[in-house]
Design a protein that fits this description.
The chain has 353 residues and is mostly helical. The chain contains 14 helices and two strands, in the order H-H-H-H-H-H-H-H-H-H-E-H-E-H-H-H. The longest helix is centred in the first third of the chain and has 30 residues, at 7-36. It is globular, with a radius of gyration of 26 Å. The N and C termini lie far apart (79 Å). The structure holds heme C (2 copies).
Length: 353
């Protein structure tokens, strides 16, 4: 075997050697600062089995923005007479709903719809019961300026925020030096906070992730029934957030006073259709349906058991189910396992002390 190396081989060897040294140097240099930096807490925590949140390109997530959004969510400064905040209708202890049939805004103004939760709306493709908003920024701005909700006038709120000494510091911190506070930017911060309000740690989640004793027999029967062809509940209330993000009429009425999705699309086949609500924390979010007319889960189950009322756009899956009393109890027992108690006392979602 020839042990003398050719010139080319020697050159290659030298190059490889130099490269290795450079590589080690780079490794040491880049490794150093990381080892002295303190471990950062994640900005938000994803429940087991949930996909990551897509923060919009023009409104990326930062710790400062979440903090500002959280403060604004609880601050009545955004409503015309400073009497109402987002949190007035989206209360943490009620899984971010308000417990009323329909919400009341500034000066007790009666709205027409039941307050839905903000939990897990970071995943929603459409916002509001009729899906008329496609981003939380847009949706929050609509809530703030709605005469039946916060009745804010943009120019008035801009000035009010700019006069506030704390916000004059916190907006530039979240949006860059020299930024003036505005209602529009407030909505960007609030939307960022809302996207981090996630919930997926219920007994049901423990069960599907392996803790087979987390549910009792009745709850397991209820789960099987919920996902069965017999009821088809899990067809529409599907996936990790128990919604297909679609619009359906469940035949609540023979004549819909609120025409739902139709108001937005002006398509006759959309009359009476509303967004499938998530069923997470459903035990805490009574009363039910877009207009809050069903007071209890028992009433909701009765509605489905009867197959709804005759209505032209009613989904074909809504039909008499002939459930026994035990089956009804099992379904309700299952729905009660979807409560995530950690959501209710998570200090990251609460008003800043
Ligand atoms: C007066 C009560 C009230 C106030 C104040 C209020 N909301 Fe709402 N919110 C509602 C109601 C009612 C709906 C459903 C309205 C509809 O579908 O037309 C809703 C819908 C939403 C939704 C959509 C949920 C979904 O699944 O589609 C989000 C998110 C939300 N609100 C966040 C906010 C934020 C952020 C603020 C503050 C800027 C706010 N809300 C202020 C009552 C209120
Ligand atoms: C065709 C799709 C579909 C099927 C099947 C279906 N749902 Fe629904 N569900 C919806 C929609 C849409 C709403 C909201 C309707 C409205 O407000 O007008 C809703 C509302 C609810 C609510 C009230 C939620 C709230 O926040 O107010 C509960 C509870 C519920 N469904 C449970 C069930 C159960 C249990 C079954 C099976 C027996 C079932 N659903 C079958 C689509 C469906």
């Amino acid at each position: 075997m020839n042990i003398s190396l050719t010139l080319r081989q020697r050159q290659t060897q030298t190059r490889t050697f130099l490269c290795s040294i450079l590589f080690v140097l780079l490794f040491v240099l880049s490794g150093c600062p990381a080892s002295v930096e303190p471990v950062k807490e994640p900005l938000y925590s994803l429940p087991n089995g949930f996909p990551d949140i897509n923060f919009p390109k023009d409104n990326p997530v930062t710790a400062e923005k979440i903090e500002l959004g959280r403060k604004l969510f609880y601050d009545p400064i955004l409503s015309s007479d400073k009497s109402i905040a987002c949190a007035s209708c989206h209360k943490q202890e009620l899984a971010f709903t308000d417990g009323k049939i329909v919400s009341r805004g500034v000066k007790g103004e009666l709205g027409s719809r039941n307050s839905p939760t903000i939990v897990n709306t970071g995943y929603a493709e459409h916002l509001f019961w009729d899906g008329r908003a496609s981003t939380i920024e847009e949706q929050a701005f609509a809530a703030a300026t709605n005469p039946a909700e916060m009745r804010a006038v943009e120019s008035v709120i801009d000035v009010r925020l700019q006069k506030d000494s704390a916000y004059s510091i916190e907006f530039p911190r979240a949006f860059g030096n020299g930024t003036q506070p505005t209602l529009r930017l407030a909505m960007k911060a609030i939307a960022t906070f809302v996207r981090t309000v996630l919930s997926g740690s219920s007994r049901y989640d423990e069960f599907i992730h392996g803790a087979t004793s987390a549910l009792n027999e009745s709850e397991i029967r209820g789960r099987d029934l919920f996902f069965s062809y017999r009821t088809q509940c899990g067809d529409c209330h599907s996936g990790y957030n128990f919604t297909d993000n679609q619009f359906h009429s469940t035949g609540l009425f023979t004549h819909y006073f609120d025409q739902g999705r139709y108001n937005f699309t002006i398509n006759k086949s959309d009359v009476g259709k509303f967004k499938t609500p998530s069923l997470r924390n459903i035990a805490l979010t009574a009363p039910y349906e877009h207009d809050g007319h069903l007071p209890t889960l028992e009433a909701v189950i009765e509605h489905y058991n009867e197959g709804g009322k005759d209505f032209i756009n009613k989904d074909s899956r809504i039909r008499p189910l002939n459930l026994t009393e035990t089956e009804k109890k099992d379904l309700i027992a299952f729905l009660n396992t979807l409560t995530d108690n950690s959501l209710l006392n998570n200090p990251r979602f609460a008003k800043k002390p």
